[in-house]
Every structure is written in C-alpha cells, then in structure tokens.
Amino acid sequence: MASVAPNDLSSLWMPFTDNRYFKANPRLMVAAQDMHYTTADGRRVLDGTAGLWCVNAGHGREPIVKAIQQQAAVLDYAPTFQLGHPLAFQLASRVAGIMPEGLDRIFFTNSGSESVDTALKIALAYWRAKGQGQRIRLIGRERGYHGTGFGGISVGGIVTNRRTFGTGLPGTDHLPHTHDPARNAFSKGQPAHGADFADRLEALIALHGPDTIAAVIVEPLAGSTGVLVPPVGYLERLRSITAQHGILLIFDEVITGFGRIGAATAAERFGVTPDIICLAKGLTNAAVPMGAVAAARHVHDAIVDAPGDVPGIELFHGYTYSSHALACAAGIATIDLYANEGLFARARALESHWEAAMHSLAGLPHVIDIRNFGLVGAIELGPRPGLPGVRGQEIFRAMFDSGLLIRVTGDIIALSPPLIISEAQIDEIADRLATGLRQLADA
Ligand SMILES: Cc1ncc(COP(=O)(O)O)c(C=O)c1O
Asked: Which domain holds residue 178?
C-alpha cells in the first residue's frame, strides 16, 4: 500500500494547472457563498469569474442545495438506458422551454466536453440516417475551445490543447478566428468589422465539396480563448451559408447558455438559430456536473424515425450518468431560481454598467484592448517581451492575493461574474484591477 500523508498535495494530478508551482504555493478554497469564496487561510475572495464561467446564480444558493439534499435521500441514481425517472423528463422539458423555438429535443451529458462530442456524433448520425453518410467532415474555428475530448480538440483551435495528442479526428477543418484588433480594438459590444471572416466558409465548402460536410461548430461568443465577441453580421452570415448548403450549424453555448449574455442563449440574444446547441456549466449552476445537447426537432426525428442499423436503439450513444438524478434536481432548482430572480434580464440590465467599468481601464499600463458583451469582459495586456503569458500570471496572482478571482488566458484577463453581482461589486472589480495594473507597472 502506498504511504500517503493526510493533506498531502502530491497525489492529486490537477487539470490545466502548473502542478509544481501550485503545490509549492497552494490556493485552497474551503467555502463559497453568493459572490465570495473563502480561502483556507480565512480570506474572502470576490468571484469575478463565476468559478469557471459556471456559477451563474452565485454560490451556495439554498434552493439548489435543498433540492440536491432531498433528491439524494429519495432516489440517488437510476439508469436512463431503457429506464427512466421523472426528474429527467421534467428537466428536459424545462430546458426545451428556454431554448430557441424548435430546439426542443434534449440529450443529457455530464460536461461541456461530452456535450460537444455528443453534438458532433449526432450530426454524423443525422446524415447517415438521411442516407448521406458521406457527410463526415466537421468544421471548427481557430481559437475555438470545445472542451478536451478528442472530438472537441479536433474541431477546437487552441494549439496547446491539440499538439500533444496526435492527429485527432480525420476530416476536420477550421474557419479563421474573428479577432481583429487592428480594426476592432476597444470595441464596446459587438465589433463593427469582421462579418467577412464567415465568407471563408464558402472557400472551405468549395475545397471539400458541400456534400462531404456534416456540420460547422462555433462558440457564438468565444470565451476561453480570451473573449472574442462575434462581429456584427458574422453569425447571420454563417447561418445563411450553412443553410444554403444544407450543413448543420452547432452553437457551443457551454459558456453563453443560461444568462451569461443577458438571454437564455446566445442564439436568442443574437437572433440566429442553429440546428444544435451544446450546454453545460450554468445548467446546474455547477452544483452537480451536467451538460446537455438541444437538438432541432428535424435532427432528432431524422435519427429516431430512421430504421437504424439494429432494431430498437436509434442512437448508440449515452453515459452512465446521463440524466443523473442529483443533477436533474439541481438543474430544475437552478432554472426555477433563474426565473424567480429574473437573472437573465438582470444580466442584460447590468450590461451598460459593466461595459463602462471595463472600459474605464483603458489607458492603464499594458492595456492593449478591452472587449465586453453581456456580463463578460476581457482586458488584453501586452506581453512581457519574449515572455508571453507571464504578465497574465502576475496579475492573476496579485489579484488573488488582493481578494479578487479573475481568469487569465495568456495575457488576457477574462471576467464573467455571477449574474447576481451588484453595481458596487462591479466597481470593486474595476477598482481592484486598476490598482493591480498600476502596481504591476511599478514592480
Ligand atoms: C465553449 C466551451 N465548450 C466546452 C467546454 C468544456 O466544458 P467541460 O470543461 O465541462 O468539459 C467549455 C469549458 O470551458 C467551453 O467553454
């Protein structure tokens, strides 16, 4: 038996972490309530990132806690392969109720990565069911983040997440990203320039042939690569090109779903309806892991009504924990809470205050761009010469020590607070960042 000391940090191999640095300088959270974490050394930290873009209703919310506790005592787990339990159906109806018109067939997963892989597999199954099984190409986008499964990294466009892990799925290709600081730096809301980046899809379609392409997947607003807000007209153009060639359009709304940009979905906010939406994070307010895929009726029906390869099961896909009872209880309580407190509308109402607070940081040392939409913001810093990402880490650590949790991607600060944030707390985030950026410049 291995000898392991209690509270030894070495056994845990941490995800997306500098393990050796962390274990020498641990940052441990022991509690969280509403807008704040409490650290192991008893400090309160204002949550500027809703955890990892997921705790949209704030931490430790009582109705969600109670729902999970009650459900655990009644039915902990029931399979949903060939069986069911009522909460799974209830939650699916509730999710369908806030999706864009027609996207009302809901498949449950346990994470955003699983939602992405599920959506890609549904797209392939759809074309096979329609007798066009040669449509196997999947188009993603540079700087796209679609989680860490092999499907997600194949259509994703983050080099560090791909290069270690082989060739990924064959037959993928990528649109260019839409980040264009030369034309759009310091845009408030949607940037004016860049709808033309969608035209590259026409070139990819010409290159591969439209009848080989199953789907295009994009984050309507890219979060993890540093908040890339879609240029005016860009999503509309993607929709019209995909529709023209009969290609499915998938929106990965793992971040944008559930109020983050002031509506239930980015599809609703931007007025562009895809064929499939990937969800996770805010679905359960992160209290229990869960993801979902919302599919248009025609996508679902094509698969479910097709004769299939084997009689009985239409889609050979699913997870042991699809529709987990505790996650369903958390999901229903979360959607109730969003509705009872009007949190999506609240995010929308706070947007102008948030925008002003973010852009008040313009002109501070090293700030080369500021972007915002909904309750999402990014402050891009110029890198230290020859040391990309170091300045980002410096500001992250300084802010954490000062009592503010931010997120950094390279030298980009990304912010996405819980939707319950007050205007005073928005100002506090801006003030703390301003102080931190000035001190960093002096250091
Ligand atoms: C757009 C998007 N898709 C997928 C994922 C992956 O989600 P998970 O980490 O739950 O697998 C994320 C996570 O940040 C995301 O932002």
From this structure: 65-340
